[in-house]
Amino acid sequence: MTLHHLILIFHLIAATIWVGGHLLLSICYLPEALKKKDPQIILHFERKFEKLGMSSLFVLICSGIWMAYDFGVSYQTWFSFSGGFEKVISIKLLLLFLTFIFALCAQLYFIPKLNPNNIKNMAFVIISVTTIGVAMLVLGSTLRYGGI
Ligand code: HEM
């Protein structure tokens, strides 16, 4: 097993946690919270998932950037959208940035003000972050075929 392969395994485990956790929240807990108008269901999940979720995102970023460098995609070529590989890495970085913006809005604005009447705003954030996560996963799966 090469070092790249080992790092890819960490990347995949972290992706499983990040995407799996958000799918669970979107498919199981969010509909229940909307139905019962109970924000505590979301807050309880967020509290339990926060540390694991954030650590897995950290692992995704470190391992992803390491593998990108291993493929010769260094920061000088980011966002030049030159080759298929480079395009995927750049889109992944843009989506990562979007995830940070959603996370920041959620922590500073939506979560502190969450109440039974505005769960729909939080639902928008949750569905967006989940969709972005799935998109990152799909984009990642194209890299073994040379990107898009
Ligand atoms: C939510 C965040 C992310 C998810 C869910 C995710 C998911 C994935 C998945 C499922 C693969 C497929 C591996 C395979 O086909 O075997 C992959 C590959 C890859 N990802 Fe990510 N990824 C994320 C973030 C990142 C970031 C931030 C970067 C770097 C900027 C990155 C760089 C890569 C690279 C270079 C590969 C190719 C590895 C290889 O085939 O050897 N990923 N990712």
TrEMBL record:
<protein>
    <submittedName>
        <fullName>Copper resistance protein CopD</fullName>
    </submittedName>
</protein>
<keyword id="KW-1133">Transmembrane helix</keyword>
<feature type="transmembrane region" description="Helical">
    <location>
        <begin position="89"/>
        <end position="111"/>
    </location>
</feature>
<keyword id="KW-0472">Membrane</keyword>
<feature type="transmembrane region" description="Helical">
    <location>
        <begin position="6"/>
        <end position="31"/>
    </location>
</feature>
<feature type="transmembrane region" description="Helical">
    <location>
        <begin position="52"/>
        <end position="69"/>
    </location>
</feature>
<feature type="transmembrane region" description="Helical">
    <location>
        <begin position="123"/>
        <end position="143"/>
    </location>
</feature>
<keyword id="KW-0812">Transmembrane</keyword>
